[in-house]
Structures are given as structure tokens and as C-alpha cells.
Design brief:
The complex is a heterodimer.
Chain A lengths: L16 H9 L8 H9 L1 H33 L10 H17 L5 H21 L16 E2 L10 E2 L5 E4 L7 E7 L5 E8 L3 E2 L3 H6 L3 E9 L5 E11 L2
Parallel strand pairs in A: 2-8
Antiparallel strand pairs in A: 1-3, 3-6, 4-5, 4-7, 7-8
Helix pairs in contact in A: 1-3, 2-3, 4-5
Chain B lengths: L11 H4 L4 H11 L3 H10 L2 H12 L6 H18 L9 H22 L7 H4 L10 H12 L3 H9 L5 H8 L3 H27 L2
Helix pairs in contact in B: 2-3, 4-5, 4-6, 5-6, 8-9, 8-11, 9-11, 10-11
Classes of the chains: A alpha+beta, B mainly alpha.
């Protein structure tokens, strides 16, 4: 592939234009200066080439800016946590993948790839289909989290409209809160781990996935992820 | 006379020890080191957040359930590609880029997914995947470009390094760094134009 001349333009008669193009693209010559404006009029092919390259550079600038903003925030866990970010699930998925690889060690890459994919599929199905009953539904577990008016509540205990889950409890040292939503059968439909503030607002898509009757539970977890306080409340969302 | 683009630049280890720890972690995970796996799990906690943020940036083409499914897909892709991580960036930055491309794949699959009323035969083209947008085309083009050109472009736009800083990394003059960047950008544009032409061909 030639890299000595730009694509899409016949620069055979434009000795020196390559150097000029390069100086503009790397920022040595201002793109909106008089020199470049005159050059654009003189050579539409170069102008087109310059437009293409600067457009590509702007796309890359935007992507780079997003990456520089998103990566630190994602590492820090800032912003609204994901309903699927439960570390246990990630751990389970990765451990299964590691087990699959270890079980197939000694084979070629091709030979362990197949069990790896199969194991991964099992993990996906397992996570997607997992529905386990709450073990502390009888209230025997630790309590002490005071659930607030997470959703605007009617006197009958109905939720008038979707809102924000709120609760009151000091954040355990180096710990976190975990919010769970269970359906009428006690099946977990949503988990939001890693919260560091006593409130969480579901987005529209998540609200749409909530059952009309559900129980929400908040656990205050220690640094070792052991529950130090748990409470739960049953609500009905008005249709 | 223009400086010639080298066949290879210094490897990340030769160039900088900045990400040597991450590279060591990836290698240890590849060897199923239990302590490394534990650290790796903790580091991968960023994946769902990255996917959600990127999805929001794209105007949320995927709903919550789609993104949830995608987390698992991304983990598998990361796992399969981990031996290709070379420490050219932090592990999280590398993961972020994997997330981005997998999210694009997910969006494309969703767009192609036939509705119940559609004829499946007409809605599942066999053609090569077309990029969701210019950004995806640029990212995939950058991947295909490969080092060292992709490194220079990434350092400039993604790490926001100046040409002087890039030159120091490369051990060359600033002018040489500029020329390598310019040529890399021209190659990337040529590549995108070729892909675009290919995509437009019936």
C-alpha cells in the first residue's frame, strides 16, 4: 500500500503539496489561516484530502476524549451502578472459563477452545436463568436498615409512580449497600451491588422490568461483603 | 528525505514499564494463577459500567437486558483475547476498547434481528458487517492498521500526547513522529475509503 500520496486525489502536478498537507494535519500550520484558505482555492483536490483527514482526526479526538473520561469513572465505580455488575457473577463466569481452560490444558488452542465456549455458554445460561429464593425472607436475618419512601407510597402501600429507592443506614467502613428486588415468589429479578449512597434510581428500561408486585431489600455489607444489616419491603406498582 | 516508517517499534516492555504490572497480571491469569485470577475478577468489575456508559453515549440502542447479556459476551471475548494484551495501555483501557467493539457488534446484531413480521431470509444478509457509524469504522480501521502506526495515532488522540512526548517514547525526533502520524492517518483514511467502497458494492 502506498503511503506517499493521499488517496482519491491526483497529486502528480502538486510537488510539495504533501509536505504542506502534513504540516496542516499535524498542526504546524493553522488550518483556518490565510495560507491554507488560499491553498484550498488553488487546489480543490488537496482541500478535499485535507477535509477527509481532519474529519478523521476529529472522530479520533472524540473517541479518545470519551475513553479518557469513561475509563477512570468506570474503574472508580462512579455514577449509577449496573444491575449486572455483581462481582460474584463476574467471578463465577471467569472461574468457569479458567476451569475450562485448566481442564483442557495440554491440548492445542483449538482443542481447548471448544470446551471453553461450551463452559461459557453454561455460564451465560446460568446467569441469565438464575433465580434463587431469598434465604432471609422470614426476617430472621440481621436487620437495622431503615427503608425510606423509596417510591411515592399510597396509604395502602401501593407505589404511585416509579421513583428512587431510598434507605437510611450509615455506610459500613470500606463497605457498600446492595439493593435487591424480588418478585412475588421470592425470585431475584434485580441486583444493584456496590452502592455507596443510600439511594438508587432505576432507569426507564430497568423500571420496565420490575414486576407489578415486588419486594425490595437493602443490605449494608461490610468490607468483606458480609451483611451487617438487612431490611426489605413489599410494594405494588399501580398499573 | 522522509523518515521511513519502521517495521516495528520497541515492544511495550522495551519502551516503558508503565503497564508492565498489567501485562504480568494478564500473563499470570493465562497461567491460571489463583491470586491473579482474583485480582483479574476485581479489575473486570468495570466491564458492566463501561458497557452502560458506552451504550448511553450511543443513545441507548441496547436495553438493560441486552447490555446484561453483552457483559457475558464481552467477558468471553476478553478471556479469549487476553493473551493478545501486550501492555500498550492499562488493562482497563484495553478492556474499554473491547467493550466498545463488542457493543457495536451487539447493536448491529440487534438491528439485523428480524421481527416476527419480517421474512428471515431477507433480513439476514450474508455481507460483511458494516460499521454502525464512523467511529466504529475508525476503531476497526485502527485495529487493522496495527502497530506502530496505530500506536502513534492512539497516543496522539487517545492518550492526548504531544508529538514531542510521542517522539520521546519512540526515541526519534519530533518531526519524525509527525511524519509517522501523518502517514498512519493517510493509511487509515485509505483503508476506510476502501471499506466504504466495498460496503457500497452491491
Amino acid at each position: 500500500m502506498s503511503t506517499d500520496r493521499p488517496a482519491g486525489a491526483d497529486h502528480a502536478d502538486h510537488a510539495g503539496h504533501q509536505d504542506r498537507l502534513e504540516r496542516v494535519v499535524v498542526g504546524d500550520v493553522p488550518e483556518d489561516g490565510a495560507e491554507v484558505r488560499a491553498w484550498r482555492e488553488e487546489c480543490p483536490a488537496c482541500a478535499g484530502e485535507l477535509d477527509g483527514l481532519t474529519r478523521l482526526a476529529r472522530i479520533l479526538d472524540r473517541l479518545g476524549g470519551e475513553e479518557r473520561e469513561d475509563v477512570p469513572l468506570s474503574i472508580a465505580g462512579a455514577g449509577e451502578p449496573s444491575a449486572v455488575s455483581e462481582e460474584d457473577e463476574l467471578r463465577a463466569a471467569i472461574e468457569r472459563l479458567a476451569e475450562a481452560r485448566a481442564g483442557a490444558s495440554g491440548g492445542t488452542r483449538r482443542s481447548w477452545f471448544r470446551p471453553l465456549v461450551l463452559a461459557a455458554a453454561v455460564v451465560i445460561i446460568g446467569i441469565g436463568m438464575r433465580a434463587y429464593l431469598a434465604t432471609d425472607g422470614d426476617g430472621a436475618g440481621p436487620s437495622g436498615v431503615r427503608l425510606g419512601q423509596g417510591f411515592p407510597m399510597t396509604p395502602a402501600g401501593e407505589v404511585a409512580e416509579p421513583g428512587t429507592f431510598r434507605w437510611e443506614h450509615p455506610l459500613p467502613a470500606a463497605g457498600s449497600f446492595r439493593l435487591r428486588v424480588l418478585d412475588q415468589d421470592g425470585v431475584e429479578v434485580l441486583v444493584v451491588p456496590g452502592l455507596t449512597t443510600p439511594a438508587w434510581t432505576p432507569d426507564e428500561a430497568t423500571r420496565g422490568r420490575l414486576p407489578t408486585r415486588f419486594t425490595w431489600e437493602v443490605a449494608a455489607l461490610s468490607a468483606t461483603r458480609d451483611p451487617v444489616a438487612v431490611d426489605r419491603r413489599e410494594v405494588t406498582v399501580r398499573p | 528525505m522522509r523518515p521511513k516508517l519502521p517495521d516495528r517499534l520497541a515492544t511495550p516492555t522495551e519502551r516503558s514499564a508503565d503497564h508492565a504490572d498489567d501485562l504480568a497480571l494478564a500473563r499470570a491469569v493465562g497461567a491460571n494463577d489463583p491470586a491473579a485470577l482474583e485480582r483479574f475478577v476485581q479489575r473486570m468489575g468495570c466491564v458492566p459500567r463501561m458497557l452502560h456508559r458506552q451504550n448511553e453515549r450511543l443513545g441507548a440502542p441496547m436495553d438493560g437486558g441486552d447490555v446484561e447479556d453483552l457483559v457475558q459476551d464481552v467477558l468471553i471475548v476478553i478471556w479469549r483475547k487476553l493473551d493478545r494484551f501486550e501492555g500498550r495501555s492499562t488493562l482497563e483501557t484495553w478492556v474499554y476498547r473491547v467493550c466498545r467493539l463488542e457493543l457495536m457488534n451487539g447493536v448491529r446484531r440487534k438491528r439485523r434481528r428480524p421481527t416476527l413480521m419480517e421474512d428471515v431470509g431477507e433480513s439476514m444478509p450474508d455481507a460483511a458487517p458494516e460499521p454502525v457509524d464512523d467511529a466504529e469504522a475508525a476503531l476497526r480501521g485502527l485495529e487493522a492498521l496495527g502497530p506502530p502506526a496505530s500506536d502513534v495515532i492512539r497516543w496522539k488522540h487517545f492518550d492526548a500526547l504531544t508529538f514531542d512526548q510521542i517522539a520521546v517514547r519512540l526515541g526519534v525526533s519530533s518531526n519524525t513522529a509527525k511524519t509517522w502520524y501523518y502517514r498512519g492517518l493517510c493509511r487509515l483514511r485509505e483503508q476506510l475509503e476502501r471499506d466504504e467502497t466495498k460496503g457500497a458494492t452491491p
